[in-house]
């Protein structure tokens, strides 16, 4: 190092400020011990008064010497005094009376390096951002909070910002500072409770967390970034600098026509998938498939089967595989189990190229207690309710968001919009809505706090759900939101302006429970439970329903769908084929969890792949072929989808033949009142010859699907392609058809005018 740096300047500095460190001594100690709430008041470039020498102060643990370098010339302008043994340096520059751009040249025991000083850069958040964040109305808070690669004053680095209003001190720690919380304490913007810093030279791909000291001085566990766009692969828990992912989208045609795919009159058939267990790579340690591999394998598979949408179990970053994603910590990060954010965008693009919509299972109701997560984030109950009667979910050992805080609502509302905007997802299935609606959900008397009117309704959460639906539908044309809601709460899928919650669709949990319970019974007993198949039509059109055979029905000892069915193997498959036929012909959109399409015997487990080898066996092949044909029929026949949510499109023909366990109903098109489809289900193993069914219109009724067909593994009992109507009044209708009903079978017959 040139000796002339020490000559003159040091003496002048000491002469100009012989006790320069004295007024700073308290601040220096606070900086050294990582306990200063306003580090920018101490560190960086300062002047003690007008026309006073410029001072540069830096805290560099482990440094032996430090020089201030003029950025314009690249020349050193002064050497700093080491005023604290831990590494606090003070450089008084008597020849400099105006602030200037500078760098630090630092001598360590093994090397001398030169770098930008983070404390020479001013605020990274603008006044409007601060105002909106404080107000809780910053719908794009994800563009400001978190970690954002950017360039300031010609210097590349990363801008970090985090909401922690009650913290005494917040530092960003990571690969760029040896994870030393003393190095990069952040500036607090008190108006919004947000801490910020620009870290020059930090780069994409580096790991980081926030080190937070609570108001009482207690050091909290390192916290992951709530707004991180990428996270480490579990079990590691650091956030990863990424920035908003860029991608060259190729889905313009899908975006142009997307609205039609979400319409109430559209065929919507959803394949529900857990990406981590749909398939694995056994020859490589049973690893997960990447998003790109899934794009190449899952998407063509779903397209071939004829599903219109894929719904992903939560892929927001989560620490525990066994939660299936339902205990997320990284709400803004697609899980790194399958690759990068760009890889996930590739997967989304592949779905759209195949004409398939993509829904995300979204979890805004609760979050896990992992120490690196949102709980006790700044030493207070920041994101969760302080009162465990409101803030702790006993069933899931999770914490419940405090929807009474505008900042918490803003975090989640921005998240919903983020997935729809930046990943172009086509909708959100909102998890556990019932738990969000009721304050006494799964709680005994005395374990919950009534609302301000003394009721059990969670008013803040209800307001949040309404606002979420208003914003998502208002900002993104052609998307859908779907509520998993199991109670009798009214108007879940009605617009907010009509008094509803604003969802597009609601899962019909009652239909699922009733019909599965019926199908599990031995056919000899079904006559006594006939109403379980018909009861759902009493309320079917009170909501826009999705009929869900979801992951929840094939875990925790419930058995797989095929194993719920009674009888020997042939009867089990016949029962399930008849049930699928009933489901696809019944009003309502459809959802089937992976594995159900080919009759997996084992319960689903997130820890292993589906049993794809079963597709080598004829009965499994037949069920698989039936699901493909049911999807094709559902999409191709307008009476089966146009009036899914319209009572005008459904009529019972025979709802009361419990003795024979037979149902017959009519589905009608919304466009052509004479386009009729007749559906007849026989839920006993006895074929029935000469079964007469009343029809409204004359003509030929073609048998467009028979779940007992040989190609599906059935016995081949049927009607030789179709039947002609007769002018014989039956079931209160002027015409009728005489059918042979297959055992444990569903028939779908389309009227052709003759």
UniProtKB/TrEMBL annotation:
Monomer. Pfam families: Alpha-amylase, Alpha-amylase_C, CBM_48, GlgB_N. SUPFAM superfamilies: (Trans)glycosidases (SSF51445), E set domains (SSF81296), Glycosyl hydrolase domain (SSF51011). Its EC number is 2.4.1.18. Residues 1-24 are annotated as: Disordered. InterPro entries: A-amylase/branching_C, Branching_enzy, GH, GH13_cat_dom, GlgB, GlgB_N, GlgB_N_E_set_prok, Glyco_hydro_13_N. Residues 272-641 form the Glycosyl hydrolase family 13 catalytic domain. PANTHER family: 1,4-ALPHA-GLUCAN-BRANCHING ENZYME. Pathway: Glycan biosynthesis; glycogen biosynthesis. GO terms for molecular function: 1,4-alpha-glucan branching enzyme activity. It comes from Azospirillum himalayense. This is 1,4-alpha-glucan branching enzyme GlgB. Catalyzes the formation of the alpha-1,6-glucosidic linkages in glycogen by scission of a 1,4-alpha-linked oligosaccharide from growing alpha-1,4-glucan chains and the subsequent attachment of the oligosaccharide to the alpha-1,6 position. It catalyses: Transfers a segment of a (1->4)-alpha-D-glucan chain to a primary hydroxy group in a similar glucan chain. Belongs to the glycosyl hydrolase 13 family. GlgB subfamily. Keywords: Carbohydrate metabolism, Glycogen biosynthesis, Glycogen metabolism, Glycosyltransferase, Transferase. The keyword Cell membrane does not apply. The active site is at 431 (nucleophile), 484 (proton donor).
